Amino acid sequence: MSLSSAIGFIGGGQMATAIYRGLVRKGIRKAADLYVYDVNASARQAASTLGINAPSSAAIVAESTRVILICVKPDAVPTVLRDLRPNIGSGHLLISVAAGVTTRALEAAAGSGLGVFPSGGAEAEPDFKHTVSHPGPPRIVRVMPNTPSLVGEGATGISAGTNATGEDVELTRELFSAVGQAHVVDEKMLDAVTGLAGSGPAYALLFIEALADGGVFAGLPRPAARALAAQTVLGTARMVLTADGGGCSACGGVPAPAGAAPVCSCPPPPHTAELRDRVSSPAGTTVAGLKVLEDRGVRGAVISAVAAATDRARELGEIAQRETSGSQ
User: What backbone phi and psi angles, to 5 degrees, belong to 121?
Assistant: First the structure.
């Protein structure tokens, strides 16, 4: 194993588990290339059973890898990065999934960096007699994944810190493509990503629940109504994301995420309004139902929900910023 291919995780909870399982499942990294540390021994054991390295300290992860995903709760970030300072430097890329903690706060918490890690890999645990120093601050990338990442269908926003390179961003996109789609955005837009994609699964679940309730009201058995509602939303989402019937061998009908180079000449998927018109026959059942939704203001309510969640994400980010700054 080369050091350049190793990926480390500080925190081994649900999101970290989804990511490292996705990396192995899709062949992006081998299990032996991954290092997972969590204060909880059971989380380390869960990684170890997959053939993933599960060292006894975060310092070993930093010594063994150049790319580290920080997968801890926001209030734990200052302590984690402060403890890592003796072991990280400009040779490291830190990718944070901590909600609300800005790249500026992450860079401040990570410090200037001493940057010591093995020159040839760390198969043994841990014999670090032959090291190379990389003084200077680590590079930072901040990401906002969502819970469908747990089933490989996530939507992730990516923002680069001050010292992060284009290669760092592309590597981050590659890693998070293991659990869905990843889109590069300006950091000031991450609150909107939170309001839409981060909170969006709850809105979609509410709609699926209501759709199923409608089916039950109309006489369907509950299990059938629930399955039909969920599959209807799943299939419709695929129609929105898929161009040309999904038959393209290069992209599978799924266009490149925002900011990524296209891999083929597939046309973009049809607009949602066009897809909706295709199933809305004049004087038919669908348009009758749509009229009720429009009369009840469903569209405006959803827009307002995203706006409210975005505002709240911004507020929580400001709180996290103050707490992070105060604990350094």
Answer: 105, 170
Task: Check whether residue 76 and residue 183 sit in a common domain.
Answer: yes
- Choose among 196, 264, 204, 265: nearest CA to 236: 204
Residue after which a domain boundary falls, among 187, 211, 241: 187
Distance (Å) of CA 161 to CA 17, 143, 295, 313: 24, 11, 45, 19
301 shares a domain with 223 = yes
Q: Is the same domain home to 64 and 179?
A: yes
Contact at 8 Å (CB) between 60 and 126?
yes
Q: Distance between CA atoms of 66 and 95, rounded to whole angstroms?
A: 11
- Domain membership flag for residue 91: yes
Q: Measured on CA atoms in the order 180, 138, 96, 10, is the torsion positive or negative? A: positive
Tens digits of pLDDT across the chain (328 residues): 344 579 999 999 999 999 999 999 989 999 999 999 999 999 999 999 999 999 999 999 999 999 999 999 988 998 999 999 999 998 999 999 988 889 998 998 898 655 554 444 444 334 343 344 566 889 999 999 999 998 999 999 999 999 999 999 999 999 999 999 999 999 999 999 999 999 999 999 999 999 999 999 999 999 999 999 999 999 999 999 886 545 455 565 555 655 556 666 677 778 899 999 999 999 999 999 999 999 999 999 999 999 999 999 888 888 877 776 666 5
Whether 100 and 80 map to the same domain: the answer is yes
Q: Are residues 291 and 270 in the same domain?
A: yes
Q: Which domain holds residue 138?
A: 3-187
Both tokens assigned to 212: 């199923």
CATH code of residue 209: 1.10.3730.10
Residues 147 and 45 in one domain: yes
- What is the C-alpha to C-alpha distance for residues 52 and 176, in angstroms, rounded to an integer? 18
The Cβ of residue 254 has, within 10 Å, a number of other Cβ atoms equal to 16
How far is residue 173's CA from residue 167's CA, in Å, rounded to a whole number? 10
**Model's pTM, two decimal places?**
0.83
Which residues, 6+ apart, have CB-to-CB distance to 67 below 8 Å? 6, 7, 8, 92, 93, 95, 171, 175
